[in-house]
Amino acid sequence: MSRIQIDRLHKTFHRHVAVRDLDLTIENGELLVLLGPSGCGKTTTLNCIAGLETPTSGRVLFDDEDVTAASPHQRNIAMVFQSSLLYPHMTARQNIRTSLAKQKLDRAETDRRISEASSILGIEALLDKLPSQLSGGERQRVATAKAIVRQPTAFLLDEPLAALDAALRLTLRAELVNLQKRLGTTMIVVTHDQVEAMTMGDRIAVMNDGRLEQIGTPDEIYNRPATLFVAGFVGSPPMNLIEGEIVTQDGRTRFVSRDLTFEPKLAAGDAGPATLGIRPQHLHIHAEGRNGAVPVTVFAVEHLGRESVVILEDGGRNKLHALVEPGFAGRVGDRLHAAPDPTHCLLFDRAGSVLSHAAAE
Amino acid sequence: MSIRLSTIWSWLALAVVLIWTLLPLYWFLKNSLLTPDEIARFPPPLYPLEPTPAAFFNIFGLDYEMADGIVRRGSGQANQIIRGLGNSLIVSAVVTVVTLFVVLPLAYVFARLDFPHKNKLLFAILLAVALPPVSTLIPFYAMYVRLGLSGTLVGLIIVTLTITIPFVTWMLIGYFRNLPQVERLARIDGFSRFETFLKIIVPQGRSGVAVAAVIAFLFSWNEYTYALMLVNGTTANTLPTAISGFLFQHPEPSHLAAAVALTMVPPALVAFFLQRHIAEMNLVDPVR
Lengths: 361, 288
Known about the structure:
- The structure holds 2 protein chains of 2 kinds.
- Chain A is α+β, with helices and mostly antiparallel strands.
- In chain A, 24% of the residues lie in helices and 35% in strands.
- Chain B is mainly α.
- Chain B is globular and about 75 Å long.
């Protein structure tokens, strides 16, 4: 178990900057998710923590001890790779045993650990099969057993569920969280799937273009995104973003877009181009026009059972998503009005930083 | 009619290929079982009426008494054949082992590591493969005479390696590249690069290793051009050149056929035991 600190980590490949001056602390026993689009530097960060990559500059500390120069094995981390990488020519048991090959344990202890790990993962019956004889989910469990058998200081998981089908992902991500909480070992999971991040993480670190955009609990990330990128990346269906401008007139600050005028509580001096963000569940649909509503046309209706998603088109042909009751009767082409709930509107400045959390005020 | 035209064509193609390859084999195997009289007959018999293994005894210098009491004398070429067989086995075995030693790490490094001028070096290997052996024959010969390597097994082994190493490297690069990327996993498990190669990559790539061995073996077993030039007529003579000696001696076609049949035995055994690996191996263009 270990507290992991990343101190001004910088990593470039040739001339491409993968990670820029990243500071991050992962608390002991925490499950942190590194979330971001592909190429954002999250896997490079994980590899630097693992010791598979050497940072261009910056340090990695395990429990305040500098391990930047230590090998992966010296750091005693365990890693599960994308698509549950295993040695293809070894049985599940041999794969798990290889984790302990350099641990200098006696045979009895090795066997005890293997049987313990396989009973935790429920893979006793699979131990003598080759990876090619296992299903995707079984391989994932074997890879996890291979990781926990070493009793590592931290688990590092690189897109552990990406190659699995949707139903299995759902089961296994709950299993992984359950396992991490039972063992109490620090875990870092890399994913590009925001649903996975939201459901698994104690905290989520959202990365973009080599930078940390925001770190916080799933609740903070979802409800109080610090940047436009986080707001747009997290949440499904995605947050509606409406381009506009903040103008100050007669001592009152207003957000003005093509179809919408909205009066947020903002300090003067924020004037300039801005983006309004509103979650689909806070965009209310009305048949009649009213103040603060955007005239829209129904583009598509997606019925999800518990609720429906209406995709609307405003005058500027921008798509807006709204969550509605399952009984929603609108048809494609219907002319309606969409009104953002002012208490849930977020405003972002030109650089993408949040200006106000209307809900909090 | 349920049989489709394409099926008929594939059967037809298969038949042509089989006749093309198997008919000559059949013909000399048949000849090796005939007596000289039968071979001389016209039209030639299509199959051995009374097959006799006499030729197979004769080429090892042994006399063979036929059922009718006629004794067929051992061949005067027997010493050449026996020595050639021994030399060929030595050369092929050494070439195979040395090729594997050099090629496995070499192909692995080309397949998995990045280093400066990698593609240029790759093309240098390809160039070595593309060069016809005849083109280097005279330089090699001139060099060998000065170095005292002509007429020696060591010399023949070295020259054969200049063919097998680039060729097998080229083949294996694509194979290694297609193996799962388990190196990071091995680093997490605490293996050094060399240990990873030895304990993880080689066992995992045993099909490739087997095929590399087969190719190297067959190449040196069948090698004729260099052997003819560098060792023919010396104590380092190999089987293919020894057999060609039959062409210039008192003609004994059944002995020639029996000796050729003998050269087929090791490659046939190798192919039989390793064919599964050859089928498994997935050759890919190493330059992508």
